[in-house]
Specification:
binds magnesium ion, alpha/beta, cell membrane, binds iron/sulfur cluster, 11 helices, P-loop_NTPase, ATP-binding, about 325 residues, AAA+_ATPase, membrane, 8-stranded mixed sheet
Length: about 325
């Protein structure tokens, strides 16, 4: 079956005074209906810009400079403003890191769900309120009949994120994009929100694109994974292969940074150095300055090749050498 979402050679650039930054530079992946894909990488890897590009929410001086974003076979890059607005909130929904920024502080949370419903469906006030209560119940908000009349500031961070998920699911989207949905929340609440997303996926068959810096979360949540660095795909494939038998040195580093159960909250800095400024990306493999295996040929960008684990990796260790 054709993929629900098919991103092909996406290029999203930013014009700056010091030159063009290729925040996303040739990214491709597919998401099948009802499945889950994680995009993982450190901040500045281009993962959020990828999700914003899909939603056509990249703001100037950023712009989609090339590639295709096929949703059910139609290219979102060529959609009119109006078509994309109809699609957002109905077919594809985005949940951000900070629920407070996503909610309007002066409206009751229930009314914000009702607004989302009425923006895309012909549904009367009473029925919409009933549906809002039902959605609140579905996302695990206790006493939903009362909570719908609360203002956002009355709710905890975790409850607010449940509200934004309820809003996102109001119109039963085919694809739910979650961009670091738990980063702003404390650790116990993080686990609860991830459990919720997993449970919802089983119940409503929405495809999930999860953006995260935490490969441990991807391991628990996603069928497939794309590892990004410096705007490029370093490795991608089924999660079991990519995390069970990582082939790209960056994936190996990310996995080594997952805190072991005995050292909760502690993060090993397994990868030395930090992400270079996007204006100072080295030519060739962007991971070069931090890679323990770097060699002269790495000054030229390797292409994605099938590795022995079954994943695709962009690394000279896996290129066929002449
Ligand atoms: Fe390291 Fe070279 Fe592979 Fe890049 S291409 S990850 S620098 S070995
Ligand atoms: Mg981000």
């Amino acid at each position: 079956a054709p993929a629900l979402l098919s991103v092909r050679d996406l290029q999203t650039h930013f014009r700056t005074a010091s030159g063009t930054v290729k925040a996303v530079d040739g990214v491709s992946f597919d998401i099948q209906a009802g499945s889950s894909l994680g995009i993982v990488g450190e901040s500045g890897s281009g993962k959020s810009v990828t999700s914003l590009s899909i939603m056509r929410l990249v703001e100037p001086p950023g712009f989609v400079a090339g590639g295709r974003i096929l949703f059910k076979g139609r290219d979102l890059v060529s959609f009119s403003e109006r078509e994309i607005r109809d699609l957002r909130g109905r077919d594809i929904c985005l949940v951000f890191q900070d629920p407070m920024a996503a909610l309007n502080p002066v409206y009751k949370v229930g009314d914000q769900v009702i607004e989302a419903l009425q923006a895309h469906q012909d549904i009367g006030g009473r029925a919409a309120r009933e549906r809002a209560i039902e959605l609140f119940r579905m996302v695990g908000i206790p006493a939903p009949e009362r909570r719908v009349d609360d203002y956002p500031h009355k709710l905890s961070g975790g409850m607010r994120q449940r509200v934004t998920i309820a809003i996102a699911l109001a119109n039963e989207p085919d694809l739910l994009i979650l961009d670091e949905p738990t980063t702003a929340l404390d650790v116990t609440i993080q686990a609860q929100i991830l459990d919720l997303v997993r449970d919802l996926r089983r119940r409503i068959n929405t495809a999930v694109l999860l953006i995260t810096h935490d490969i441990g979360v991807v391991k628990e949540m996603c069928d497939e994974v794309v590892v990004m660095y410096g705007g490029r795909v370093m490795e991608r494939g089924p999660t079991a292969q990519v995390t069970g038998a990582p082939r790209h040195p960056y994936t190996v580093g990310l996995l080594a940074s997952i805190p072991s159960p005995g050292m909760k909250g502690q993060r090993l800095n397994a990868i030395g150095g930090s992400v270079p400024s996007p204006l100072r990306m080295p030519p060739g493999c962007p991971f070069q300055p931090r890679c323990p295996h770097a060699m002269p040929v790495c000054a030229t960008m390797p292409s994605l090749r099938r590795t022995d684990s079954g994943s695709l990796a962009a690394c000279w260790l896996y290129e066929e050498r002449a």
